[in-house]
Amino acid sequence: MSLDNCKIYVLSYFCNLIITVCFMSRIICLCNRVGGNDVEKVLSKHPQASIKDVMNLTAASTSCGRCRSELEAFIEEIKSKQPATAPSSQLTIPFDFS
């Protein structure tokens, strides 16, 4: 690969990265391009999700790990804004016996 091709490749990579970052609500994991909106979506569908669950579903903090504390803080921030609801003790049966 020539030097010119390397420059074009690097420039293309950083342009894509900048475009991705511009459209994220809040950057959580730069390595895997995970934004705050991605984490919020997971937590809205799975309010009791642990940090490991969020990591598995979004790939945040699964590369270098430097964003782990940011991810933990963001999860706590989102969970603190959610209304406190106790888990239902009733068993929901999806059949109608009437």
TrEMBL record:
Keywords: Membrane, Transmembrane, Transmembrane helix. The keyword Cell division does not apply. InterPro entries: BFD-like_2Fe2S-bd_dom, BFD-like_2Fe2S-bd_dom_sf. Residues 27-77 form the BFD-like [2Fe-2S]-binding domain. The keyword Membrane applies. The chain crosses the membrane at residues 7-28. This is BFD-like [2Fe-2S]-binding domain-containing protein. It comes from Marinilabilia rubra. The lineage of its organism: Bacteria, Pseudomonadati, Bacteroidota, Bacteroidia, Marinilabiliales.
